[in-house]
From TrEMBL:
The keyword Cell wall biogenesis/degradation does not apply. The chain crosses the membrane at residues 12-31, 102-119, 164-188, 225-242, 280-305, 325-347. InterPro entries: CDP-OH_P_trans, CDP-OH_PTrfase_TM_dom. GO terms for biological process: phospholipid biosynthetic process. GO terms for cellular component: membrane. Pfam families: CDP-OH_P_transf. It comes from the Eukaryota. This is Ceramide phosphoethanolamine synthase. The lineage of its organism: Eukaryota, Metazoa, Ecdysozoa, Arthropoda, Hexapoda. GO terms for molecular function: phosphotransferase activity, for other substituted phosphate groups. Keywords: Membrane, Transmembrane, Transmembrane helix.
Length: 353
């Protein structure tokens, strides 16, 4: 009895420490953004020189980008710096010329398949090993992007939209997600016992009054196929929306505009910086940081890793996905679209005129 209690308290302590770490890093990132210029000014200096205590490649807040601000907390503050550290120590970008970013992307699909196989088992330890393998997959996903950007001399987290690597990485991410969904489907099929706390049983006197179609519909909604279709739909929608706003904001705030006169170009850069530092943009990016595709994967993996009835957790997740999470996604998309339209009108007014 003592051991499970101790383990649960250990898990809770680790989660609290991670939460405090993420909050602290978010605060550091916020203050970093407030003193960050997207482009060097005429004297080639920033508003306030930033002295990183460690190498800039290893510091997740040294180079600020749109994608970094919208990246989920584990990837931004843990896995991405670890990928940079391994590359720095092993010299993958410089010396391992035979290892391409696309090869790394393909290899993490294999890791995801192995992790999915572990998750299908009923043993908690096997499922935890599977979750760890999926985190290795996510780390390799960060590594392929870091290697690609280093070889192209690109600083910070950025999506090279339209490139072959962008599509290969997206396909491999999708395959990894499919592997997780298939694993959960197999797990639900193998563990078909109903979750006692999921729904209260209907009293016996009321059973005859329920139509057969309603009972059949309720049974269908709790089927593994239905559950995984809902999760797949949710992952797809949130991935499309997240990538859309990364692309839009990158084009608005991080692309140099050569079509305006040099005199007005400084004003154009200043307007980009104003939007970058605004509280509204910070709120939008922080919301996407917590509710993007990778964050949803993290929440699902956390539910798999922790002790307890996994079937119950999956069913609760599906209930959230069916109504509450789509509501959040709809509101977040509306607010992001409204903010982007206003930011576009403010930044692009020079080029329009």
């Amino acid at each position: 009895m003592f051991l499970p209690t101790f383990v649960n308290k250990t898990y809770l302590a680790v989660l609290l420490l991670l939460l405090l770490y993420f909050i602290g890093m978010d605060l550091l990132l916020y203050f970093r953004v407030q003193n960050y210029d997207i482009r060097p000014r005429a004297n080639n200096t920033q508003a306030l020189p930033y002295r990183s205590p460690i190498l800039c490649d290893l510091n997740p807040i040294c180079t600020v980008t749109v994608k970094a601000m919208m990246l989920d907390h584990p990837n931004h503050y843990i896995l991405s710096p670890l990928a940079s550290l391994v590359d720095y120590l092993l010299g993958i970008s410089r010396s391992w010329t035979w290892l391409t970013p696309n090869a790394i992307s393909v290899s993490h699909v294999i890791i995801a398949i192995i992790g999915a196989r572990c998750i299908t088992r009923s043993s908690l330890f096997s499922r935890q090993v599977g979750v760890v393998l999926f985190q290795v997959r996510a780390w390799m996903d960060d590594l392929d992007g870091h290697v690609a950007r280093t070889r192209l001399n690109i600083k910070g987290e950025k999506s090279d939209v339209g490139s072959i690597g962008f599509f290969v990485d997206g396909i491999c991410d999708a395959l990894g997600c499919i592997a997780l969904i298939v694993a959960l489907f197999v797990f639900l099929r193998r563990n078909a016992n109903d979750c006692a706390n999921y729904e209260r049983p209907v009293r016996a006197p009321l059973l005859p009054s329920l139509p057969h179609s309603a009972v059949a519909s309720n049974s269908y909604r709790k089927s593994p196929l239905y559950n995984m279709l809902i999760v797949s739909l949710h992952f797809s929608l949130i991935s499309i929306a997240w990538n859309r706003y990364i692309s839009l904001y990158q084009d608005l705030l991080e692309i140099d505009n050569k079509n305006i006169p040099p005199i007005d170009r400084e004003d154009f850069y200043d307007r980009q910086t104003v939007v970058y530092r605004s509280s509204a943009f910070w709120a939008v990016t922080l919301a996407w940081k917590m509710f993007n595709f990778h964050a949803m994967m993290d929440y699902m993996l956390l539910a798999i890793f922790l002790p307890g009835n996994l079937r119950c957790r999956i069913q609760e997740y599906v209930r959230l996905t069916w109504w509450q999470i789509p509501a959040i996604l709809s509101v977040l998309t509306f607010i992001s679209e409204l903010h982007y339209v206003n930011a576009y009108a403010y930044v692009k007014i020079l080029t329009i005129n």
